[in-house]
Amino acid sequence: MSTETAEQTALEVWVDQDLCTGDGLCVQYAPEVFEFDVDGLAYVKGPDGELLLAPGSRVDVPVHLRLEVIDAAKECPGDCIHVRRADDDTPVAGPGADG
């Protein structure tokens, strides 16, 4: 896949709260996408800013935050942020992704 095609591919992200360590790097990288709940764990936020508390809830990664979300997944000490291509569910960053 060319870089241009990869940059245009829609991405989704979700957080596995069972692995979340509560370090907060994701919230620092992309506060528009990630937020802590009262349990001290990170969750993704929907387009309206509402926390999605159901396990495995996915949201689309805003185009202007792609790099921040990918970096958050790569730097996460809990290895709990999953970034996947929306069209075929291929891991882009986080568990299961190459590199």
Polypeptide structure, described:
This protein is of the alpha+beta class and 99 residues long. The chain is 21% helix and 21% strand. It contains 3 helices and 6 strands, in the order H-E-H-E-E-E-H-E-E. Strands 4-1-5-6 form a 4-stranded antiparallel beta sheet. A two-stranded antiparallel ribbon has the order 2-3. The radius of gyration is 12 Å and the shape is globular. The model is unreliable at 1-6 (pLDDT under 50).
Q: In percent, how much strand structure appears in the residues? A: 15-25%
Number of beta strands? 6
Return residue spans where pLDDT drops below 50 for at least 5 consecutive residues: 1-6
- Enumerate the strands of the largest sheet in spatial order, edge to edge or round the barrel: 4-1-5-6
